[in-house]
Design goal:
Strand content: 15-25%
Radius of gyration: 23 Å
Distance between the termini: 75 Å
Helix content: 25-40%
Length: about 500
């Protein structure tokens, strides 16, 4: 069912567009705003308050003022608040889904999937809030007792990306709240509306004033820089590109901040000769086209054994060709637009470079004319190793395919990158399945599965793909300090 323009406008008009600081909704101190646009049309949706350094300082003041009381809030109360937020987001799933589709572009089907995924972080960490445990033991020499206490790290700066506006917010905010931390949240300027609506939900769920502060801004560096330099900040969590992450890490080093960095990816997708090719194609579609290919977990390089490469390439091309591209609010649409025109032309340049170096386009390969930032689902084969598309994160619906002959060659190709967020492999060889986790340089591995993200599992990478883990039992540890206590026996 296609959503009417009247329903779209009604939703947009209901979203708070001011800063959320200390429990109050207020305009930016300088009175500035910036435009949030619909990537399917290029037209403005609404103007949002544009925070500056003074607003960031006010948000930090609010977070610091609320920290002690929030840390002292009983775990069960924090748990109940998160569970109420989960219930509300779930009940308002259609509202959140439409809002994400309007500001980010993905189809309503995908947006609904993100609502379910993002809400689950709230439920998961509501359950973890009451399971923050230390330990008690006897010292090996028997002369003292040793125990540890877990306590919240303190005020946090959470910087979220544009591609998963709800899930990336809940994946950071959920464990921070569960642990007893206050926070300043800086959403991406392209997609701040979902975070603002979520902040409203948290307020209604009972989050005290000052615990969650949201500061949209069109000038990220000048706003977050002073926050990172503030000696009261204790933790920085960022999801985004590796170059930006490196800059933030350098800034965070001055105050030796706790950091979580979920950075860029260059995921290999390996298809071995013994694989179920049809299953591999299905997994490849999911791993590549989820979120229009605009995901750090997106399969970026396809390495297929020479015995099945032709069959896999043909079937993947057929699957891509069957996908309907259009505005995400329209019924039957599979893939929406890319986030902006720069992103679309960057993807086109990667395809053109591959073709110029000898690759063959199986399907797609072109910008789609008309309003919005659409690009055809694209499969290219026989892509040489020096093509830019094999070394740069694509962030679009393009699947470059190359061949390999042996397992050793496949692993060498997969590891030939400074990144190591996620890898995928299709094989029915159980011995190989047991070998791959130790041989592939990756933080996550999908075996015979094209989508593996799960709130109950640790998400994160190695090498230049980041530091720390989000989700799972590990996720809340990122927001906790360990205090060791020694009690001497008399």
């Amino acid at each position: 069912m296609t959503v009417s323009s009247a329903d779209e406008r009604k939703l947009i008009d209901s979203i708070p567009v001011n800063l959320h600081i200390g429990g109050a909704w207020r305009p930016a101190s300088g009175g500035k705003t910036f435009s949030v646009d619909d990537p399917s049309t290029g037209e403005r949706l609404v103007n949002v308050a544009d925070a500056d350094a003074a607003d960031a300082a006010a948000a930090m003041d609010a977070a610091v003022a609320a920290q002690d009381s929030w840390a002292a809030t009983p775990p069960r109360e924090r748990s109940d608040i998160l569970r109420r937020a989960f219930d509300t987001v779930t009940a308002r799933a259609d509202e959140f889904a439409l809002l994400m589709t309007l500001e980010m572009g993905k189809s309503l089907v995908e947006s609904r999937g993100e609502v379910a995924y993002g809400a689950e972080f709230l439920r998961w960490f509501s359950e973890q809030a009451v399971r923050i445990d230390g330990r008690y033991t006897t010292a090996p020499d028997g002369k003292s007792r040793l125990f540890t206490v877990k306590k919240p790290v303190g005020p946090c700066l959470l910087i979220t990306p544009w591609n998963f506006p709800l899930a990336m917010a809940t994946r950071k905010i959920g464990p921070a709240l569960a642990a007893g931390c206050t926070m300043v949240v800086k959403p991406a300027s392209a997609t701040p509306l979902t975070t603002l609506l979520f902040a409203q939900v948290l307020q209604e769920a009972g989050v005290p004033d000052g615990v969650v502060n949201v500061i949209p801004t069109s000038s990220a560096g000048s706003t977050t820089g002073p926050l990172i330099a503030d000696s009261r900040l204790r933790k920085l969590s960022f999801t985004g590109s590796t170059p930006v992450g490196q800059t933030l890490l350098a800034q965070a080093s001055d105050n030796v901040l706790r950091t979580s960095m979920e950075l860029g990816g260059n995921a290999p997708f390996l298809v071995f000769a013994d694989a179920d090719v049809d299953a591999a194609v299905q997994g490849a579609v999911a791993a590549k086209l989820r979120n229009i290919g605009e995901a750090c977990t997106s399969a970026n390089r396809f390495y297929v054994h020479e015995d099945v490469a032709d069959e896999f390439s043909r079937k993947l091309g057929e699957a891509f060709a069957a996908k309907r591209v259009g505005r995400g609010t329209e019924a039957g649409v599979d893939l929406g637009p890319l986030i902006d025109d720069d992103a679309r032309h960057r993807v086109a340049a990667l395809v053109d470079d591959a073709v110029a170096r000898g690759a063959t386009v199986v399907v797609g390969g072109s910008v789609i004319d008309g309003p919005g930032y659409f690009f055809e689902p694209t499969v290219v084969t026989d892509v040489p190793a020096d093509a830019l598309v094999m070394s740069e994160e694509i962030f679009g619906p393009v699947a470059p395919i190359a061949r390999f002959s042996t397992e050793g060659e496949a692993i060498e190709l997969a590891n030939s990158t400074p990144f190591g967020l996620i890898a995928y492999a299709y094989t029915t060889d159980h011995d190989r399945i047991l070998r791959l986790p130790n041989r592939l340089e990756t933080g996550m591995l999908g075996i015979n599965s094209g989508v593996i993200s799960n709130p109950a599992a640790p998400f994160g990478g190695v090498k230049q793909s980041g530091l720390g883990r989000e989700g799972g039992y590990e996720g809340i540890e990122e927001y906790l300090e360990t205090v060791y206590v020694n009690i001497a026996l008399t």
